[in-house]
Amino acid sequence: MSGRITRNELLLGLAVVAVLALAPVALNQYWIRVVTKVLLFAVLASAWNLMAGFCGYPSFGQVAFFGLGAYVTAVEMVRFHVPFVLSLVLAIVLSVVFAVLVGLPVLRLRGHYFAVATLGIAEATKQVVANLAIAGGGEGISFPLPPWTPEVTTRVFYYSMGLVLAAMLVTFRLAIRSRPGYAWRGIHANEEAAQVLGINTTFYKVVAWAISAFFTSLVGGIYGYWIGFIEPNSMFSANVTVEMVVVALLGGSGTLLGPLLGSAVFEVLSEVVWAHFLNVHDLVLAVLFGIIILFLPGGLITYVGRGGRQVRRAVS
């Protein structure tokens, strides 16, 4: 299968970009923030999906990169007065190096051993950050205020998340239809067979985890600057990990656009449930998504794909 982007994919991508670019014109500040969160978790779920859906290695420590991205960016800006963009770059570099160093031994583990190890990495990273005075310790740290009006600030972070998602989708689309993508699918299908065929499985798993860490830390830094104040319990929260996993599974694990669809459905439903069932918000969501995952094991994207094929057959 060619790694080139097809004409239909290009047209679909341009249509989505156009809709997202024009959305702030029609939406108020509240819904722009909601869509920004949709874009955020689409990136986080896609990053998790690269490891779990394509490589078959479900990592439960992705939140470590999310928190590192936010904290390194904050420390650089607050303690050393480094501009935001440069601070973000340094945060990404540190997160990727951390992913590679940790990934080399951890990605030799499999199954529940790997899952437990990644959970341990996330918790250990949280504890280290919580005991660093330069990072504010357990009390957290505040970012400098953005130099824009509230309305402009909302749009800046909206478009920033959108650009990151677009770059990620293009990167993943090219990668999964090239040598790394074939290696990842081979590892997912049968890692021993892939090794027999000469695939350096550890190398390709580390590459996937490094790419995943890159985008996770990138949106972590942007998100931290967006909310203005971060502390260990929120930035390294297991809830963030759970939500990115649920979003990926809901949309369709192992697919390119599944996490985006899952994030849109999850966040909109979450807002509706929050508005009408405030006291039992988490319970209602848990029941809803338990039902969806049980009866839609392939994710929502499989049903969207079937509908698209039926429409094409009807009009052909």
Describe the structure.
This protein has a two-stranded antiparallel sheet with strand order 1-2. Helix 2 (29-54) crosses helix 12 (258-276) and helix 7 (179-189) packs across helix 9 (201-227). It has 14 helices and two strands, in the order H-H-H-H-H-E-H-H-H-H-E-H-H-H-H-H. The longest helix is centred in the middle third of the chain and has 27 residues, at 150-176. It has one domain (7-238). The chain has 316 residues and is mainly alpha-helical. It is globular, with a radius of gyration of 20 Å.
Largest sheet: 2 strands, antiparallel
The order of strands across the largest sheet is 1-2
- The radius of gyration computed from the alpha-carbon positions, rounded to a whole number of angstroms, is 20 Å
Averaged pLDDT:
89
Beta strands, count:
2
Q: What's the total helix number?
A: 14
Helical residue percent band: over 70%
Gross morphology is: globular
Topology:
Layout lengths: L6 H20 L2 H26 L8 H17 L4 H23 L4 H20 L10 E2 L7 H27 L2 H11 L1 H6 L4 H27 L1 E2 L1 H4 L2 H14 L6 H19 L4 H15 L4 H16 L1
Antiparallel strand pairs: 1-2
Helix pairs in contact: 1-6, 2-6, 2-9, 2-11, 2-12, 3-4, 3-5, 3-9, 4-9, 6-9, 7-9, 11-12
Concise structural overview:
This protein is mostly helical and 316 residues long.
Q: How would you describe this structure in keywords?
A:
single chain, about 325 residues, mainly alpha, two-stranded antiparallel ribbon, 14 helices, about 0% strand, disordered C terminus
